[in-house]
Amino acid sequence: MDRRIKFRHLEAFVVIVRARRLKRAAEQLNLTQPAISKTLRDLEEILGVSLMTRDRSGVRLTPEGKVFLQYAEQSTAALRQGINSIASLSEAGGHVLKIGVLPSVAAQVLPKAIEAFRRVSPDTILDVDEGSHGFLTDCLRNGELDLVVGRLGNAESMRGLSFTALYSESVVAVVAPDHPRRDATRLEQIEEDLIIYPPDAAAIRPLLAQLMLSRGMALFSDRIECVSGALGRAMTLGALQPVWFISRGVVADDLDAGRLVALDIDMRSTEGAVGIMARSEENSSALVGLFRIALSDAAVALASH
């Protein structure tokens, strides 16, 4: 875009069109008629076309003016909306933003996103709920949450919701460092073990079911179905020593620190998108938009780590 075009050019053009007369437009903008005429003339010179004709009946758009008008209106409206959004952020003290997160996001991306968000909106209260995919998406649809961050679910679970991808992650099978089958490389080798398995409402369960079906295996018979990261971690490191199937993000820090070990089983087919879910029919508030930016930045930082 030609850098010579300024907001005052676009605003003057739009106001002249709506007012239909230069004098009336000048009054609305608190300008003199010669000043607004010069602004319009400058814009036409920059564009190299005539945008309107002027006669005793007022102003009439040229074909070029009709084309340019829609973009000028969109630009001025977008800028005003941005200014109003910034103003609303400064008035957001005491406002509550309700976020639903799946465990993998709560463990990795969310802390960084919250840090960034609070730097620009420190007075906003964040109400964060952790739970299964089915529970959180139901709460989102019912208006109990403003956003949900987690794995993309199946078509039915995403009904009425939009999804913006942030990054991808896979499921891992993790065990305690001293687990007798820590060197297992096939699912069949842990078939008789106690398993911590995602419940029906978890987004990763269909992916694991598909993986097992591809291996000709039935659902593990000796299993505990659990979505809690805290319980899964405590049990995996406890006396029962189960094998825990969980999204990598939930246990990333444990794997890096050596507290848990990921079995060398091919789980690439369980990889899926993690992103932001929102009600598809609603426009985002300034606070929701700001939190989206914080999440995106945190996801980029995670990918480069």
Automatic annotation (TrEMBL):
UniProt-listed Gene3D superfamilies: Periplasmic binding protein-like II (3.40.190.10), Winged helix-like DNA-binding domain superfamily/Winged helix DNA-binding domain (1.10.10.10)
All copies of domain HTH lysR-type, residue ranges: 5-62
Listed GO biological process terms: 3,4-dihydroxybenzoate catabolic process; positive regulation of DNA-templated transcription
InterPro entries in the record: HTH-type_LysR_regulators (IPR050950), LysR_HTH_N (IPR000847), LysR_subst-bd (IPR005119), TF_PcaQ (IPR012787), WH-like_DNA-bd_sf (IPR036388), WH_DNA-bd_sf (IPR036390)
Pfam families: HTH_1, LysR_substrate
Keyword match Repressor: no
Gene Ontology CC: one annotated term: cytosol
Keywords of this entry: DNA-binding, Transcription, Transcription regulation
GO molecular function, one term: DNA binding
Family in the record: Belongs to the LysR transcriptional regulatory family.
NCBIfam families the UniProt entry points to: TF_pcaQ
Name of the protein this chain belongs to: LysR family transcriptional regulator, pca operon transcriptional activator
